[in-house]
Amino acid sequence: MDLRAYLKAxxxxxxxxxxxxxxxxxxxxxxxxxxxxxxxxxLSTSPLKLNLGCGxxxxxxxxxxxxxxxxxxxxxxxxxxENWPFPNDSVSYVYSEHVFEHFEFRKEVPHFLSEAFRVxxxxxxxxxxxxxxxxxxxxxxGHSEHEYWPFAKRKRPDWCETQLDFIxxxxxxxxxxxxxxxxxxxxxxxxxxxxxxxxxATRRQFDSTLDSERRRTGTLYMRATKx
Length: 227
Description:
six-stranded mixed β-sheet, alpha/beta, Rossmann fold
């Protein structure tokens, strides 16, 4: 019996899944560690602008960060749940689009916001975030004529059939898409930003020079400053 068959015969599916998760977490930890070292070479660039969770859309003139994208596509593969390798008051702009909803609300969100607040310049450093607008989605429930439904049926997987299927997908998503950890509306996002110390948290319009065109519909964009 080979090792794979041996382990399968003597372990549960849940345990094997957990082992795979640990292997994946180890690789992500190594990526983060390498990028922490690499970040030191970027600190001479001033002022820094961070494009967090940029995916396949890196932006020229920014430090493009994404844990899951390959080196060469992004500047740094950082795990933003860890401490960020940038000094206090070293960053002029922190931007993220459809990333913030992937952080757990009670611990990861406060850590993300505290690190952003710490690294931003005092007296005007900008925190700019775009998240799925869950208020828009919830307003559509029970109203088949709402503008959300044509949008949702173009963008969501085939297994979404009922209205609640679509809403569940927007709240949580499925593992292969990257799970959402929290749903945001304007009131809740503003509260979290203000509790982290940010001021002037304001909803803004889509900005074609900054935001992704494919995110124009259904995204809540908010901008705040560090006093």
